[in-house]
UniProtKB/TrEMBL annotation:
Residues 1-20 form the signal peptide. Gene3D superfamilies: alpha/beta hydrolase. InterPro entries: AB_hydrolase_fold, Peptidase_S10, Ser_caboxypep_ser_AS. This is Carboxypeptidase. PANTHER family: CARBOXYPEPTIDASE, SERINE PROTEASE FAMILY S10 SERINE CARBOXYPEPTIDASE. It comes from Lachnellula cervina. Its EC number is 3.4.16.-. GO terms for biological process: proteolysis. The keyword Iron-sulfur does not apply.
Length: 512
């Protein structure tokens, strides 16, 4: 299944010499820089090496990486991973996982659209290097899971997120052993339905009490699914509901409320909206009539809908060239990343990854569930939320949190109100794609941090990459809080190019 490729070692060695040669002089004026030696190349990892200059259609070197399938157990079940070590020395004892949601979406979305080394955005002619890749800060691994999603292999058979976690942990142990990633701090990040996976996986890891493999040190979730699903979708529309009246007329009341919050009317005991109260769909359909390109993942989108190299052609209602194939489903691409050539890669699979399309686990964010446990064990749980997302909404997520008790107290004592400041990029290209200054509001209490991200849809690192880059610094403990002004901590531009940091930024607003 994997092509043997010993010669790649040579290539990687050469490419690191070339990179080292572009570094500025050191203090002694000598141009002797030791090329970074990969600590990950062993006989066991050779079959997984990706030739960073040979990714089809990508005309630059993406750097050192490894990808392929690893088993869960001795059956046909395997998960697909793509691992990229960081060049940042502060990351030596870390490993950060990224998971997309769905259920059933491939985490290669994150790799190609959010925090990976390559961006191929909708409508773009060709891929470009991602100046905001999280690999600049830490060691990243993108994983297609559960079985059934992306390039993962085998027959899906899970019925709950607890079972997803069992399979993930078995795979994770194999990955850690393969690359020698033991005794590292494990950070788990992701978005959307991964809010369910991340918390069940993190809780299961913590339950192992095994710091060799499972030293969970924090998690970060974007626009997560973690409460009663329809609660996060419906409440802003049900304007007469007592709970919502309370939020709008007296937000403070919500922040002093004690005891379980009542469900909004129209929701059954399972948290699902009854069909006669389904205001969400009414609003969605009305929006679609006004704007046929309306997108619940980013409510600002207008026509035309740009083509997307990751989407299947059916998504375009006949508006794609006849032989169009999604990037990761192309044979050359599969061969380059050690994915099975006969696999059928879809951005999000329509086949069930949970038996009968049903995750029998409770929402991860209710009292007594894994969110509470993970906060109490790590005191480093980070939730971020785009304000232009309509599939999961900021206030719905805050309602779920106001109903949760963690570290002995219910909810936050105030709404998110401290300014979240993203520094201005010192690199011109990065500056064109990442916003700066006040990009949201945050609150942090008892180990849980919540922050809104303005001008962002559902996939925050895709819409506001500079915000996500700063928030990763927070998760990893490089900065104390999100109000700190000043440059990015790992300002690789400075390190790489040896030029002074642009001083034209971070004026306090009062200066004007
Ligand atoms: C990696 O790919 C590049 C571009 O296709 C090629 O020139 C180079 O020989 C490859 N390196 C190895 C070690 O195969
Ligand atoms: C799913 O399959 C695995 C074997 O790959 C088995 O160990 C597990 O018990 C199965 N789970 C369920 C819920 O059937
Ligand atoms: C586990 O992570 C914590 C920080 O979250 C660190 O203090 C501790 O040393 C780590 N343990 C091991 C065995 O690496
Ligand atoms: C969310 O709730 C706050 C009060 O806590 C309110 O000011 C704001 O308008 C609400 N946002 C939306 C989009 O409904
Ligand atoms: C609040 O939590 C309780 C259980 O602790 C649950 O019964 C109730 O439905 C929840 N309310 C909301 C608004 O989520
Ligand atoms: C994806 O690849 C599989 C295997 O080659 C093929 O059967 C399928 O038709 C492809 N899907 C698309 C949308 O091109
Ligand atoms: C899935 O659905 C079938 C048919 O309705 C049912 O027999 C089976 O028990 C269901 N399985 C689970 C795990 O809910
Ligand atoms: C943020 O952290 C800095 C120290 O790094 C501290 O001076 C400042 O008060 C903190 N701000 C908030 C709002 O917590
Ligand atoms: C990440 O590193 C690359 C290569 O060193 C650099 O071009 C890019 O600007 C860096 N981005 C950030 C945000 O540091």
């Amino acid at each position: 299944m994997f092509s043997r490729a010993t010669i790649f070692v040579f290539h990687l060695y050469l490419s690191s010499i070339t990179e080292a040669a572009t570094l500025p002089n050191d203090e002694s004026g000598s141009r002797q820089f030791s090329p970074r030696k990969s600590t990950f190349i062993t006989t066991k990892t050779l079959p997984f090496i990706v030739n960073g200059s040979a990714l089809p259609d990508v005309n630059f070197d993406i750097g050192e990486s490894f990808s392929g399938l690893l088993p869960i157990d001795d059956t046909d079940k395997e998960l697909f991973f793509w691992f990229m070590p960081s060049r940042n020395p502060s990351s030596n004892n870390e490993i950060t996982i990224w998971l997309n949601g769905g259920p059933g979406c491939s985490s290669l979305y994150g790799f190609f659209r959010e925090q990976g080394p390559v961006l191929w955005r909708p409508g773009n002619f060709a891929p470009t290097a991602n100046p905001w890749t999280w690999v600049n800060q830490t060691n990243m691994v993108w994983i297609d899971q559960p079985v059934g999603a992306g390039f993962s292999q085998g027959t899906p058979n899970v019925t709950s997120s607890e079972e997803v976690a069992i399979q993930f942990l078995a795979f994770w142990k194999n990955l850690v052993d393969l690359f020698g990633l033991d005794h590292r701090k494990v950070f788990i990040t992701g978005e959307s339905y991964a809010g369910q996976y991340i918390l069940y996986i993190a809780a299961a890891m913590l339950d192992q009490h095994n710091e060799k493999y499972f030293n969970v040190s924090g998690i970060m979730m974007y626009d997560p699914s973690f409460g009663w699903y329809d609660l996060a979708m419906q409440p802003i529309f049900i304007i007469e509901a007592p709970l919502v009246v309370m939020i709008h007329s007296s937000p403070t009341a919500l922040y002093f409320h004690r005891g379980p919050l009542p469900l909004v009317p129209g929701l059954g005991p399972d948290g699902k909206v009854t069909s006669e109260c389904d205001i969400y769909n009414e609003i969605y359909l009305a929006n679609m009539e006004l704007n046929p390109c309306f997108d619940i993942y980013e409510i600002g989108k207008l026509c035309p809908k740009p083509w997307d190299v990751l989407e299947s052609p059916e998504y375009y209602n006949g508006n794609m060239p006849p032989n169009f194939e999604p990037y990761f489903n192309r044979t050359k691409v599969k061969a380059a990343i050690h994915a099975p050539l006969d696999s059928h890669w879809e951005l999000c699979t329509s086949r069930p990854v949970f038996t009968n399309y049903t995750d029998l686990s409770s929402p991860s964010g209710i009292t007594g569930g894994p969110l509470q446990r993970v906060i109490e064990a790590t005191n480093n749980v980070v939730i971020r939320h785009g304000t232009m997302d309509m599939i999961l909404m900021v206030n719905g997520s805050l309602l779920t949190l106001q109903n949760l008790t963690w570290n002995g107290v219910q909810g936050f004592s105030s709404p998110p109100s401290k300014p979240f400041i993203a520094p201005k990029a010192t690199d011109r290209i990065a500056g064109f794609s990442g916003g700066s200054r006040v990009l949201g509001l945050w609150v942090q209490e008892r180990g849980l941090s919540f922050c809104t991200v303005e001008l962002s849809g559902h996939e925050v690192p895709a819409y506001q990459p500079s915000a996500a880059f700063r928030q990763l610094e927070y998760l990893l403990g490089r900065i104390d809080n999100l109000t700190i002004a000043g440059d990015f901590v790992e300002d690789t531009w400075l390190i790489e190019k040896g030029r002074p940091v642009d001083q034209m930024h971070d004026h306090p607003i009062e200066d004007c």
